[in-house]
Design goal:
This protein is α/β, with parallel strands linked by helices. The chain contains 4 helices and 10 strands. It has a single domain, classed as Metallo-dependent phosphatases (Purple Acid Phosphatase, chain A, domain 2, 4-Layer Sandwich).
Length: 180
């Protein structure tokens, strides 16, 4: 299982492309009994996984680590056991790109504070969750990506279960949302 002490900067070997799988709001077992098989199939060849909070059970990290190393943050639905082990904000570098992750972009920090965090940490990308609705957008020079939820998409009647990918090269980052 990944914990705050061991979950630090991933070590990538040199190569032209790194692929990061993005997951959020799994809510296991509250809203689904297990991680959907589509998550494992879709992310089977990623180099690393980011989970943007609301795991609900730490065992989610163990399952995802069967695919690749995981960097995770705590979310508002995570209990004290998870909040004591996972930070609210974390980040790492791939090539020269700095990637941050948090759960609730606006509630945790607020709009002004979000901009300050991005600037203070020189983030090129910020991954977030909470809304269960996938999104890719730019805020200034920073790419913001919400992978949605693989277990309970929003809006419930229109949304599809989703995860995200970041394909990263030294020259750029290509974000993608994938329906499961």
């Amino acid at each position: 299982m990944v914990n705050q002490e061991t979950q630090r900067v991933p070590r990538f070997e040199e190569g032209p492309v790194r692929t990061i799988g993005l997951v959020s709001d799994t809510h296991i077992p509250d809203r689904a009994s297990r991680i959907p098989e589509g998550v494992f199939k879709t992310l089977q060849s990623v180099d690393y996984i980011i989970h943007a909070g609301d795991l609900v059970r730490l065992s989610v990290l163990d399952e995802l680590e069967q695919i690749a190393p995981v960097l995770a943050v705590s979310g508002n639905m995570d209990g004290p056991d998870i909040r004591s082990r996972l930070p609210k904000l974390d980040y790492f570098k791939v090539f020269d790109w700095k990637i941050g992750v948090t759960h609730n972009l606006r509630a945790t920090f607020g709009s002004r504070k979000t901009r300050e965090i991005i600037e203070k940490n020189s983030l090129d990308v910020l991954i977030y969750g909470h809304t269960h609705s996938s999104s890719i957008r730019w805020e200034g020079k920073t790419l913001l990506v919400n992978p949605g939820s693989p277990t309970q998409p929003a809006p419930a009647f229109l949304g599809k279960p989703t995860v995200g990918l970041l394909r990263i090269t030294r020259e750029g980052i290509i974000p993608q949302i994938l329906n499961l």
